[in-house]
């Protein structure tokens, strides 16, 4: 079993070939592919975490589509002052599918 832990969108995700992951919005190249930086690689019994060895490893993914996350509502209120503030936010996300780990 081959899998990798990659750095993506300020977080780390465990991925295998065929895994679909939702990340913060990232730009793809003209072919719709993205390269992710590996932090750890597990290839059967062999575990690689050395930076020099991981520089040779490439994790590629194809962009499946862009989407937006759920709406969150931010409300602020101060008692007895008449201060009320309401704000909404939807995070920009990208859904990717891992195509290869080499």
UniProtKB/TrEMBL annotation:
Any one GO MF annotation of this record: rRNA binding
Gene: rplU
The name this protein goes by in its record: Large ribosomal subunit protein bL21
GO cellular component terms, semicolon-separated: cytoplasm; ribonucleoprotein complex; ribosome
One GO-annotated biological process of the protein: translation
The keyword RNA-binding is assigned to this record: yes
Alphabetized PANTHER family for the sequence: 50S RIBOSOMAL PROTEIN L21, LARGE RIBOSOMAL SUBUNIT PROTEIN BL21M
Source taxon at top rank: Bacteria
The UniProt record lists the keyword Ribosomal protein: yes
Record keywords: Ribonucleoprotein, Ribosomal protein, RNA-binding, rRNA-binding
Assembly and oligomerization: Part of the 50S ribosomal subunit. Contacts protein L20.
Described function: This protein binds to 23S rRNA in the presence of protein L20.
Family label: Belongs to the bacterial ribosomal protein bL21 family.
């Amino acid at each position: 079993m081959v899998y990798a832990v990659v750095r993506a969108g300020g977080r780390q995700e465990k991925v295998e070939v065929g895994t679909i992951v939702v990340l913060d919005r990232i730009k793809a190249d003209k072919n719709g592919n993205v390269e992710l930086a590996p932090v750890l690689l597990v290839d059967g019994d062999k575990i690689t975490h050395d930076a020099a060895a991981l520089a040779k490893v490439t994790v590629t993914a194809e962009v499946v589509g862009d989407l937006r996350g759920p709406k969150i509502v931010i409300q602020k209120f101060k008692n007895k002052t008449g201060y009320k503030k309401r704000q909404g936010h939807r995070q920009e996300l990208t859904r990717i599918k891992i195509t290869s780990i080499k």
